[in-house]
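hey so u asked for the seq, here:
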Amino acid sequence: MSEPDISVVVCVYTEDRWEDILAAVSSVRAQSLPALETLLVVDHNATLLERLTRQFKEVGEVRVLANGGPRGLSAGRNTGIAASHGEIIAFLDDDAVAERDWLRHFAEGYADPRVMAVGGRTMPIWASGRRPAWFPEEFDWVVGCTYKGLPPGRVRVRNVLGGNASFRRTAFDAAGGFATGIGRDGDKRPLGCEETELCIRLTRARPDAVLLIDDRAVIHHRVPEARERFGYFRARAYAEGLSKALVARSVGADKGLESERRYATRVLPVGVLRGLRDAALARPGGAGRAGAIVAGVLTAAGGYVLGSVRARGGGTAFSVVSVVEIEGLPDDEGAAA
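ran it, structure tokens below
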């Protein structure tokens, strides 16, 4: 059986990540299973669009294009989907690098025709050189990484994590694109969960769909110094609560919070006990990790309550569009040629 053609979409928005963007593209170009193409989708930044177009004008497999929708990560991903040609569309964060067999492991998952999405494992690269002693592994999702509590190996999951994920093109035909108004949007509060909402919507549209995480499909994600601080930890946990309220509004609380209930009742209590044990044994950071887990749960819960109130009051809106509805994206739009 031949390997599927894979398009890789990298959404970018700031020149501050210039070197990270180049590293991300280089890691895709070095894959043991070559990508059909790499699409750099620039989020409403004309200077960055022009600079990247110049940078890759001689690189045929790299295409640079402007986000064809509203500002934000979801619309950027939808733009990439609409402009891509691969049977599989993979997504890589602009501040991450993929290991050499990343795409090969994704491709292996699609040997089963029921598989609609395959995600991978995201490892943090701490700016300080090491994990802060107080930072619990159970909360690595705060910095966009795989967290303690996910099962190892290639396993079936409710949803994949957006910065290291792939989907069959037919998944978007069935479910539509990423919802705008639910995820990250430039400099606004660090919201998320757009991939969770999409995956649940997908399995409702295709009840036979299988979604996997393969922990051999590894990327390494840069964590800047500002995100190693407790202030960011707290802000991101609060934003997660707000986002989960939107997910619950879209797909219902039963499915929207199914994995979160297991995480909160099984994984986090063990993490607190582990931290307290480490504190009793005078190991560095034990009490801090236990306290951070409790603070993270309470802060996320507060965000969820407020987000639910806003959602019921109509104060927050998001929308789902078919990716084919995105206009202004001929095949060579903004492409480096």
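The longest strand covers residues 210-223. The chain has ten helices and nine strands.
lmk if thats what u needed
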